[in-house]
Write a structure and sequence with these properties.
heterodimer, A: 377 residues, alpha/beta, Rossmann fold, 7-stranded mixed β-sheet, 5-stranded parallel β-sheet, 18% strand, B: 302 residues, mainly alpha, ABC transporter involved in vitamin B12 uptake, BtuC, two-stranded antiparallel sheet, two-stranded antiparallel ribbon, 4 strands, globular
Chain lengths: 377, 302
C-alpha cells in the first residue's frame, strides 16, 4: 500500500512543475498579461466592472486577430477596493507577476500612489478615469491617462456656472479624497471672484448622513451646490438637501455620472448638472465599440469606452515597439497618435491627452443628457 | 439652524439608541459585547429591502405605503431575531463557561462571517430601497422636519416605551432582570436561564432590524458594510450611557446623535466622527461607568 502510493506520487510530483510553468507568464512565454485595476467590489464596483469589460473586449478582439507579437493576451483583474493601501498592494502584485502594462486605476487617490510602483518597475500605466492633475505632474515617463484633468473640468464647470447659470452664491462641498477635494478646489479657483463661495464644507466618503453639513450650507443660502465626489455621496447629498428644503441645483463632476446616482437620489436627481466628456453615442467612431459592448455586456458604463481605448493603445504600442519592454512601449505611446473609439488620441509630454473636451450634462427625466449648446465665452 | 440640527441629531440618535439597546441588554445578561450586533442590524435592513421589493412585485400599490412598511418591519424583525437567536445558540452558548475573552472573539468571528455571507449572497454593490417617501415636510421655527423623520422618532419612542413596559411589567421581564442580577441564583429559583438569554437576543435583534429598515428607508440605500459603522456608533452610545443600562443606552444614543450633528455644525464637519469619540473619552475619564451605569457594577442591569 505504502509502496504503491509512493509509486503514484512520484510521477505526479515530477509533472507538477510542468503543469504550472505555462501559468506563471514570464516574458518569454507564449502569453502576455495585461493588468486591470479598479474597485471591483464595494460601493464603486460598477466602475471597476466597466473597466474590466472594456479591457476584456479589446483583448478578445486582439486575440481574435492572433494576439500581439505572436503571443496571446491574458488579463489579470485586480480589486483595489478604492483604497489607496490596497491599490499599492495590487500594484506590487501585478509588477511581480510581470504584467506588460496596467489599465487603471479608477480613483485618483489610488492611481497616484500606485503610479510610483509602476514607474519604478518601468511598467506602463494608462488610467481611463483618474482626473486629478497630480497624477501626471509627478513626471513619471510611463504614466498616461486617456481622460481629462480636473483643472480642465473645474474650469468648464466654473465657466458654465458664471456665464450660463449666472449663480452668485455658491456652496462648495467635497469628499476629502484626492479626486473630490482636488476637483472642488480647481472649480473654486477657476470661479475666482465671479461668484461668492458662501460655504466650503467636507463630507466623509462612505457616510450616509449629511444633514448636519447641509443644514449649515442652507444657512449660507446658496443658489448652487457644487460637489467634488463620487455618485453614492452625490446621490444622498442632493436627496437630503431637498429634504431640508434647499432648492439650489447640484453641480458635480464626472464621478457622479452613473445611473446609481439617479436611483439613490430618486426625483431629487432632476436638474443636476455634471461635467463629463461628450456622449459616446454621438461620436461616430464609437459606434462599432458600442454595438459590440452592448451585445456582450449590455449598456455601457461611462468609462467602458475609455478602458477599451486604453487597452488598445497599450497593445498597439507593444506591436509598434516590437517588444514588451515597458520603457520602449511608453516612449511609443508618447510619440504616436492613436485612432480609438473616442477618436484621435495623442499624448503631451506629461502623459495627458492633448485635447480634453469636457462638456456639461444635465439629469432630465431620470437620464443623463449632454447639454447641446456650448456656454458663451 | 440650531433647531434644525437638533432635529437631525435626534433622528440619527434615536436610531443609534435602538441598536445600542441590543448591545446593552446582552451585556447586562451575559456580560458579552456582541460585536455581531451591527451585522444583525444590516441583515434587518436587507430583509426589509427584500420584502418591500417582493410587495412591489406582487403589485401592492404605492398608496398602501403604511401597510408595506409594516409588513417589511415584521419580516425584518422575524429574520433578524432568527439570526440573533441562532448566533447565540451556535457561537455563544457553547462558550458560556469559557473565559470571557473566548465568546468575544467568537463574536468578532461571527461579525466577519455574516458580513462576507451577505456580500457573497446579495452582491457587493449598493441596493436602493424601492420606495421613496415624499420629500416635503413641516416647517416650524425656521426648521424642517420631514414625515419620515417624524415617523422614525415616533417609531423609536414607541419601541423604547414598549421595551421599558416589557422589562418592568411582564413575567419574562422580571426573569430578565433577575438573570442580570445573578444568573446562578436565577437558575436556582426555577428561571430557565437559556430561554431568557434567547429572548434577550431575539428582542435586541428585533430592535436592530427595525433600526435597519428605518435607516434604509431614510437614506434609501443599503450595502453589506453598513453594520460596521452603525455597530461601532451604537456600541459607543451604549458605553456613553453606561453599558448594561437600558435607559442609559437610550440616553447615550440620542446624546451621540446630537453631539455629531452639533459638532459638525459648530466645530467642523470634517472631524464629525472624531468629535463624538472625543466626548466618549472625556466621559469615560470622568465617569468610567458611563452616564447612567452604577458605580459599583451591582444593581439592575437590564
Amino acid at each position: 500500500m505504502n509502496r504503491s502510493l509512493s509509486r503514484a506520487i512520484v510521477p505526479i510530483a515530477l509533472l507538477l512543475p510542468a503543469l504550472w510553468l505555462p501559468g506563471c507568464g514570464g516574458k518569454d512565454e507564449a502569453v502576455i498579461t495585461v493588468g486591470v485595476a479598479g474597485p471591483m467590489t464595494g460601493d464603486q464596483s460598477k466602475m471597476g466592472q466597466d473597466f474590466r469589460n472594456g479591457v476584456e473586449l479589446a483583448v478578445e478582439e486582439w486575440n481574435g486577430r492572433g494576439g500581439v507579437l505572436g503571443k496571446k493576451i491574458r488579463i489579470d483583474v485586480n480589486d483595489d477596493q478604492h483604497d489607496p493601501k490596497q491599490a499599492v498592494a495590487v500594484a506590487n502584485k501585478m509588477v511581480n507577476k510581470g504584467v506588460v502594462g496596467v489599465i487603471g486605476h479608477f480613483n485618483s487617490s489610488c492611481s497616484i500612489p500606485a503610479s510610483d510602483i509602476y514607474a519604478k518597475a518601468g511598467v506602463p500605466m494608462i488610467t481611463p478615469a483618474s482626473t486629478n492633475p497630480k497624477l501626471t505632474e509627478k513626471g513619471h515617463p510611463t504614466v498616461f491617462r486617456v481622460c481629462g484633468r480636473d483643472d480642465q473640468q473645474g474650469k468648464v464647470a466654473a465657466d458654465f456656472v458664471a456665464n450660463v447659470l449666472k449663480s452668485k452664491r455658491v456652496a462648495v462641498l467635497h469628499d476629502k479624497t484626492e479626486y473630490g477635494q482636488g476637483l472642488a478646489d480647481e472649480f473654486r479657483k477657476s470661479l475666482g471672484t465671479r461668484a461668492e463661495v458662501t460655504a466650503y464644507e467636507a463630507v466623509i466618503q462612505g457616510d450616509k448622513d449629511f444633514k448636519a453639513v447641509l443644514t449649515k450650507v442652507k444657512r449660507a443660502d446658496p443658489d448652487l451646490l457644487y460637489f467634488g465626489g463620487v455618485y453614492p455621496e452625490a446621490g444622498l447629498l442632493v436627496r437630503q438637501a431637498r429634504e431640508l428644503g434647499i432648492t439650489a441645483p447640484l453641480f458635480s463632476g464626472d464621478g457622479t455620472i452613473d445611473t446609481k446616482f439617479i436611483e439613490i437620489a430618486g426625483p431629487a436627481a432632476e436638474g443636476t448638472y455634471l461635467t463629463f466628456s461628450p456622449d459616446p453615442e454621438k461620436v461616430p467612431t464609437a459606434k462599432l465599440f458600442l454595438d459590440a459592448y452592448r451585445r456582450k455586456y449590455g449598456p455601457h458604463g461611462p468609462y467602458s469606452i475609455y478602458a477599451y481605448d486604453a487597452a488598445n493603445i497599450l497593445l498597439a504600442a507593444i506591436r509598434d515597439a516590437g517588444t514588451t519592454d515597458g520603457r520602449a512601449v511608453s516612449k511609443k505611446i508618447r510619440d504616436s497618435s492613436f485612432r480609438g473609439a473616442l477618436g484621435e488620441i495623442a499624448f503631451d509630454p506629461k502623459g495627458d491627452v492633448r485635447t480634453a473636451p469636457y462638456v456639461v450634462w444635465i439629469t432630465r427625466g431620470g437620464k443623463f443628457e449632454e447639454i447641446a449648446s456650448k456656454p458663451a465665452p | 439652524m440650531l433647531v434644525q440640527q437638533i432635529i437631525n441629531g435626534l433622528t440619527l440618535g434615536s436610531v443609534y439608541a435602538l441598536i445600542a439597546l441590543g448591545y446593552t441588554m446582552v451585556y447586562g445578561i451575559i456580560k458579552l459585547i456582541n460585536f455581531a450586533h451591527g451585522e444583525i442590524y444590516m441583515i434587518g435592513a436587507y430583509a426589509g429591502i427584500v420584502s418591500m421589493g417582493l410587495l412591489t412585485l406582487l403589485g401592492v400599490p404605492p398608496s398602501l405605503l403604511p401597510v408595506s412598511i409594516l409588513v417589511s418591519f415584521l419580516a425584518a424583525g422575524v429574520v433578524s431575531a432568527a439570526y440573533g437567536v441562532t448566533v447565540e445558540r451556535l457561537a455563544y452558548r457553547p462558550l458560556r463557561q469559557a473565559p470571557r475573552l473566548s465568546p468575544l472573539i467568537s463574536a468578532v468571528g461571527v461579525s466577519i462571517f455574516l458580513q462576507n455571507f451577505v456580500m457573497l449572497s446579495q452582491g457587493a454593490g449598493d441596493l436602493v430601497f424601492p420606495i421613496t417617501f415624499p420629500l416635503e415636510g413641516i416647517s416650524f421655527l425656521g426648521a424642517r422636519i420631514t414625515t419620515l423623520q417624524i415617523f422614525i422618532l415616533a417609531a423609536s419612542v414607541l419601541l423604547m416605551a414598549a421595551l421599558t413596559m416589557f422589562i418592568n411589567r411582564t413575567r419574562m421581564g422580571t426573569a430578565m432582570r433577575a438573570t442580570s442580577q445573578d444568573r446562578v441564583m436565577a437558575g436556582l429559583v426555577g428561571i430557565n436561564v437559556d430561554r431568557v438569554i434567547a429572548v434577550t437576543f431575539a428582542i435586541g435583534s428585533l430592535l436592530a432590524a427595525v433600526a435597519g429598515v428605518l435607516v434604509g428607508v431614510y437614506y434609501g440605500l443599503v450595502n453589506f458594510s453598513i453594520g460596521y459603522v452603525a455597530g461601532l456608533k451604537a456600541f459607543t452610545a451604549a458605553v456613553l450611557g453606561g453599558i448594561g443600562s437600558v435607559p442609559g443606552a437610550m440616553l447615550g444614543g440620542v446624546l451621540l446623535g446630537l453631539l455629531e450633528a452639533l459638532g459638525a455644525a459648530y466645530i467642523s464637519s470634517e472631524y464629525k466622527d472624531a468629535f463624538a469619540f472625543l466626548v466618549l473619552i472625556a466621559v469615560l475619564i470622568f465617569r468610567p461607568q458611563g452616564l447612567m451605569g452604577s458605580a459599583d457594577g451591582s444593581g439592575e442591569k437590564v
